[in-house]
Amino acid sequence: MSTIESSPIDTVIASRQSIRAYKKDPVPAGLIEHVLDMASRAPSATNMQPWKVYVLTGNALKRLTDAVCTAFDNEPEKHQPEYSYYPDPPFEPYLSRRRKVGQDMYSLIGIAREDHVKRHQQQRRNFEFFGAPAGFIFTIDRKLPCVNFIDYGAFFENLMLSAKSHGLDTCLQAFWSDYHLIIREQLSLPAEEMVLAGMAIGYAATDAPINRLATDREPVSAFATFLDK
Ligand SMILES: Cc1cc2nc3c(=O)[nH]c(=O)nc-3n(C[C@H](O)[C@H](O)[C@H](O)COP(=O)(O)O)c2cc1C
């Protein structure tokens, strides 16, 4: 445990968590624009700024969520992400960490491993942006190399931290990439844009059990090697 006093930014970082149930209260359009502006202050390799964002609210959000939920209910096997987000084959220590967060989440909301109907319903919440009044779809030009995915990570974190600092919560969602065909059609995406992820943004439903999910982290000593000789 560090003895360094937390800075205001440390406090925001430590208070962010993925939120998977939201109040209906709308997010002011100016605030959404502000957090995107802050996100875009992220560093990027040679300042290429590879991010492209679709902001969905109101009818546009409903049209997309309805279309993707219909596909998720009726033809999930037809939809695959444009990039792989699980290593194949899975391996340690990543497999155990992935399993733990899934088990913790489902046990918190009382859904058994074999309850496929309830698991489907919970996974479906992803495609409703977990009830958030606003959602983002992020794309990247598929011709860009790996380095620009690093840029996008910095952009995402800036976005989530700026949102948190204004009382908003978020959940970054790679699951959306599975339904890129439908998103492409709904948002009229040009062919060169690859659907990277979605993100729910709004005000947390503080009494929802799922929002009590606390995730742990390995200590610094487990992932950092300090070299001074
Ligand atoms: C690239 C990325 C994709 C993610 N995709 C999803 C997703 O599709 N659905 C979801 O519920 N959470 C998703 N998450 C949230 C992670 O599960 C979460 O960040 C992780 O368990 C740590 O928890 P925390 O964000 O509360 O600290 C994603 C996070 C990242 C960084």
TrEMBL record:
Family affiliation: Belongs to the nitroreductase family.
PANTHER family the UniProt entry points to: NAD(P)H NITROREDUCTASE YDGI-RELATED, NITROREDUCTASE
Gene3D superfamilies the UniProt entry points to: NADH Oxidase
Source organism, top-level taxon: Bacteria
The protein's required cofactors: FMN
Family matches, as CDD domains: PnbA_NfnB-like
Name under which the protein is recorded: Nitroreductase domain-containing protein
Gene Ontology molecular functions: oxidoreductase activity
Keyword Aminoacyl-tRNA synthetase: no
Transmembrane segments: none
Record-annotated Nitroreductase domain positions: 13-203
Protein keywords: Flavoprotein, FMN, Oxidoreductase
Keyword Nucleus applies: no
